[in-house]
Amino acid sequence: MKKIYLFIAALIASNTFYGQYFTEVTPSPFKDMFDGNSVFTDVDNDGDLDIFIVGLASTEDVVLYRNDGNGNYTEDTGNSFEGVRLADVAVADVNGNGYMDLLISGRNTSNNPITKLYLNDGTGQYTLDNSVSFDGVQYGTVDFADFNGDGAPDVLITGDNGNNINGIAKIYFNDGSGSFTEQTGTPLIGVDYSAVIILDVNGDNHLDIIISGDKGNPDYTTNLYINDGTGQFTLQNSGLLAINRGALAYADVDGDGDLDVVVSGRTTGSTKESKLFLNDGTGVFTEQTSLILTGVELASAGFSDINGDTYPDLIVSGLVSNNNRSSEMFINDGNGNFTLYTQNSIEPISQGSISFGDVDGDSDDDLLITGISTGAGTMGPYDKKITRLYKLCNLELNQPSLSPISAICSLDEPQAPTATDNCSGGNTTIIATTTTTFPITDTTISEIIWSYDNGNGLFGSQTQAISWQDIDTSTTISQ
Q1: Which contacts (CB < 8 Å, 24+ apart) does range 169-174 have?
Q2: pLDDT for position 19
Q3: Which of 131, 254, 342, 348 would be a feasible disulfide site paired with 336, CB 3.0-4.6 Å?
Q4: pLDDT exceeds cutoff 80 at 457
Q5: What pLDDT does residue 13 have?
Q6: Higher confidence at residue 160 or residue 396?
Q7: Which of 12, 20, 13 is nearest to 309 (CA)?
Q8: Lowest-confidence range among 30-39, 106-115, 139-148, 416-425?
Q9: Is the pLDDT of residue 86 over 90?
């Protein structure tokens, strides 16, 4: 009798890879600025992200840029803010009316440190709130967070208040109406040249605080303060690197449910270091020595999912040495193992900021940077101040899952799959190519690897399985 054998050499779901990268928005609608920070927020409740940028442009400045919904920005000239440098900025709804209010700090044009609160009327028009009084700071930070669990955003201020002391770190409780009272008797150690992150380090659903900076003489520190849920804090040994003139950022990099921390800045020995510390779930941190980051000071750092795999990737920027700056991008595999992305197009900066937000409503985080970059500019032959918006774009596979191809004995070249490039100023179709030679007659070859290249540094690939069918026509003779 005739026997027919069906051999499946490979019958697996196609694998896909999405290449993504940042493309700079040109021409830039923003003032070039440094010595400050930036924040995304919706100032007029129209559903898109507007931008506040604070720092030094041609003079001390606070600028609001409004978004048209597509990531196109226009400077708002209808507000009057007191300009600052050596500055920070934060937003929150301080009085419960549903509108995002504005808090700024820094050195004003009279060389005095200030901290000012501006109230939003809901349309993005702001009025200075003269009823509140915060310590003015420079070389510092301002942050909103609900420290005592009453649902209202409280205020944390750190930095140099100009009184020839070593710096301050103060909490002001909000009564819910936007009236603030300083919390006294806290264990917070005052610092300047500070960096702050507010996060739940031990999983008790209370917001803890990590503060780095110089407490004097110099004496650099990175301190962890554990919140009991009522806004009362206890200093806890954390194992984090003590830094100054630096940056802090956090994310769950290894998927274990707790928040890990990147620390970058100048150490007491005047070396520059950048390190990732893994959290054991209780707020005790251990350095991950397998990740080698360039040591920088005057640093900025941030986590965001850059390549679309849902894992937090990392960007760290800062000053490496005189006139030598760095902006490094690292891709996370989901287990906290990072790989340097060598085709990074982000301009190296120091004395600036990194902020992520979805500016164009495409469900991925775009990037805004400010700071000093290396190159001829208004600051001299080696330095230039910049503000850059980079939109995250990608190759969208038109067939996310490629069906296996059936073949008997040989396989001629099939029709190539395609992807849509939304990075090159329009939706351009990219036809995949392969290095496979056709026809394929070697039945041990089980897949075709298709590659995409938009010619501008963006790559992607797909794997398509081959299902070989081998027919045995031998017969069996019965006697």
Answers
A1: 169/194, 169/211, 170/135, 171/147, 171/231, 172/134, 173/147, 173/148, 173/231, 174/94
A2: 52
A3: 254
A4: no
A5: 38
A6: 160
A7: 20
A8: 416-425
A9: yes
The upper half-sphere exposure of residue 60, i.e. CA atoms within 13 Å in the direction of its Cβ, equals: 21
Q: Tell me, what amino acid is at 234?
A: T
Query: What was the pLDDT predicted at 456?
Result: 67
- 367 Cβ contact list (under 8 Å, min separation 6): 22, 304, 315, 346, 354, 355, 356, 389, 390, 392
Q: Exposed, middle or buried by CB within 10 Å (0-12, 13-18, 19+), for 293?
A: buried
Give the residue carrying structure tokens 């919390």: 183
Q: What are 345-376's pLDDT values in tens digits?
A: 899 999 999 999 999 998 889 999 999 998 76
- How far is residue 116 CA from its own chain's centroid? 26
Please tell me the distance from the alpha carbon of residue 441 to that of residue 32, in angstroms, as a whole number. 60
pTM: predicted TM-score of the whole model, two decimal places: 0.85
